[in-house]
Amino acid sequence: xxxxxxxxxxxxxxxxxxxxxxxxxxxxxxxxxxxxxxxxxxxxxxxxxxxxxxxxxxxxxxxxxxxxxxxxxxxxxxxxxxxxxxxxxxxxxxxxxxxxxxxxxxxxxxxxxxxxxxxxxxxxxxxxxxxxxxxxxxxxxxxxxxxxxxxxxxxxxxxxxxxxxxxxxxxxxxxxxxxxxxxxxxxxxxxxxxxxxxxxxxxxxxxxxxxxxxxxxxxxxxxxxxxxxxxxxxxxxxxxxxxxxxxxxxxxxxxxxxxxxxxxxxxxxxxxxxxxxxxxxxxxxxxxxxxxxxxxxxxxxxxxxxxxxxxxxxxxxxxxxxxxxxxxxxxxxxxxxxxxxxxxxxxxxxxxxxxxxxxxxxxxxxxxxxxxxxxxxxxxxxxxxxxxxxxxxxxxxxxxxxxxxxxxxxxxxxxxxxxxxxxxxxxxxxxxxxxxxxxxxxxxxxxxxxxxxxxxxxxxxxxxxxxxxxxxxxxxxxxxxxxxxxxxxxxxxxxxxxxxxxxxxxxxxxxxxxxxxxxxxxxxxxxxxxxxxxxxxxxxxxxxxxxxxxxxxxxxxxxxxxxxxxxxxxxxxxxxxxxxxxxxxxxxxxxxxxxxxxxxxxxxxxxxxxxxxxxxxxxxxxxxxxxxxxxxxxxxxxxxxxxxxxxxxxxxxxxxxxxxxxxxxxxxxxxxxxxxxxxxxxxxxxxxxxxxxxxxxxxxxxxxxxxxxxxxxxxxxxxxxxxxxxxxxxxxxxxxxxxxxxxxxxxxxxxxxxxxxxxxxxxxxxxxxxxxxxxxxxxxxxxxxxxxxxxxxxxxxxxxxxxxxxxxxxxxxxxxxxxxxxxxxxxxxxxxxx
Length: 834
Ligand code: CRA
What we know:
Blueprint: H1 7-19, H2 23-36, H3 47-75, E1 80-84, E2 88-89, H4 94-101, H5 104-113, H6 118-123, E3 129-130, H7 134-148, E4 153-158, E5 166-170, E6 173-177, E7 190-201, E8 204-209, E9 215-220, E10 223-235, E11 242-252, H8 254-262, H9 266-278, H10 294-318, H11 325-328, E12 329-334, H12 340-352, H13 357-367, E13 368-371, E14 382-384, H14 385-391, H15 393-413, H16 418-424, E15 427-428, E16 434-436, H17 437-443, E17 447-450, H18 453-463, H19 465-470, E18 475-477, H20 484-490, H21 493-503, H22 525-550, E19 559-564, H23 573-588, E20 598-603, H24 611-628, E21 637-642, H25 647-653, E22 659-662, H26 674-680, E23 684-687, H27 693-700, E24 706-707, H28 712-720, H29 725-731, H30 733-743, H31 756-764, H32 770-789, H33 791-803, H34 810-822
Parallel strand pairs: 1-4, 1-12, 4-11, 12-13, 13-17, 17-18, 19-20, 19-22, 20-21, 22-23, 23-24
Antiparallel strand pairs: 2-3, 5-6, 7-10, 8-9, 10-11, 14-16, 15-16
The structure holds ligand CRA.
């Protein structure tokens, strides 16, 4: 029966074209988007035009679900998680959205029909790198899992115009290139010019009498800028739920412009605009705080102020009275970067909504939860009181008042313990008084958590010991997780297919514990063989990419030994280098019998101002240049440095790794998440008892994990009793000869000085105890090599790693938060009828 050609039927036809999942609908919408948005037809379309059309076609399908989610959440007054994070390291959207919509295969077939290659269209996407590393990527995994777990959520953050720099390697050194990710437009975001909030800076506070005759304080900022919302839909896997990622862009407010124009100050007006827009211009490329950087504090305040104003607006538009604000919202502070939100919510409730202190504090304190991500003292944020006073005078007053009331509570609880009051105060006294953001976050939150069991234990025992004694029930652990959609299905489709085939279903993708069903097949020769084939294919892909990107030829038959993460001394990339040099020396001495051929692969960025981390990168490349050009050793070892390690490049790396290096000094890595990504892709881990390694080892079984090194406790003990690295250097001839080889100039064209800062530091200070763990590490690497020689055994271990890694899905982490921290229940969106 043919459909009558009425306006209604045309409308529904169009709707199907824009939302349908059939190949016909996808194809039509793709061609329409190419024509109507890009103004192109197929024959002349550039790869970028094709990518944009594919992205819009995918986005069309997200929007319908998004609107439905928003409607349901609004009408049902659903409790909502607001995730506050200064970073979201999202990675490319297209492939992940196709998987979550379940249309990858259809998209591939449509591409083929149009004589296009889906993989190259996907390659075109420039990823939004709005984060530095683990913390930002965690936020992105959590957003995806919040949708998958059907928890209503809004992610709030900053729409940086320049994300994390692109890394190039020139003459072995890291060179930073600006990341102009918005250059060609961003098809995933929707600007909301009407969702716009004023944000003040500077000025002064004043007292006044309100209409009831009560004395109140208010802030008269000197400068006001606007924050404009840019929304990105975040789809879950196999669900209709779409959550919202709302990032704020800073713009000059019109009133400011007018003022300057009216006084004839054209330059001043334009300058003001530039100055305002600077606030969301660039991500600070450091995973530690930038001490005293005024712009950074401005950024933090900018995004939390917009977010708090937005939450209040949403609440008033739906539920109504602010008394129930903390029932409607729970706000998660992703580290201390958004901790000012506590103070901003207080200010809004007190000054803009006329609440009493007790009422405002009751709401604020019930709204917030705080996740701590590091114990490193240099990463704990503090801001000078002077800077605060100048930039946020009203907030400083509120902090003082929070502190006054809090310290009264401490005094009553710990009678006469002045030292404790000193330590717990929100203000650090000293030559320069400073606001302690971590203490503010703990005091302002109803729940505090660390990101792995060991880390959470150390948080309670060291960093927040005083607080844990005061409020023991406030402290929790939620071990991190990563999304298996991106890091298995998107990154490693061959493995995903093999798992699906072996288990006989795809349910493991949303219930990762079901990977356990692989265990029943672990001894089947057929599975083992296919497992190896999948791994080999991934290694071949990576080898081809590496060859093209760096010129280094890797042998896919060799063991791919990978360390990929930010460069930091505590992560001990230099320990890995010492191992490489040891292998090199052994082969040169004709002692290669206990080795296996290995490709040593590194990836990672260093903070631009972190001299030692940059020197480690140079050292790796220098050692690599000598080894890769020495025909003597070429059948045995190669060294490759993957430039620009980011989400996209990570996805190339994880599937190809045989061995995952997780070798930080125990007690220093809060969790790590790369460790989980490698393991999910069948790499075996060599690691210390640090961060989530501890739990990964428990999960996969100690026989399937290469453990070495001191425990956190032992490391601390040795530090306290006086650690003398030079004794290791003097007494271990091999270690000495490895370090001496660096100093000999062999890797630096005879320059004996260039690596001295690094080697001298190791021998004389060694703050991360590389030398203390050197021997244990080498011994353990020997076991790795022996194990690798037994292919069947290795493959078995690899399968077991994947089978038992289910716990480290970010879905599990989100369910933990939902149940224990947020007290929130899922809100599924019903699929459309028909
Ligand atoms: N640098 C930790 O160091 C952890 C992530 C996410 C870090 C990692 O061990 O996996 O957070 N800490 O929880 C951090 O950013 C400010 O502290 C990280 O990414």
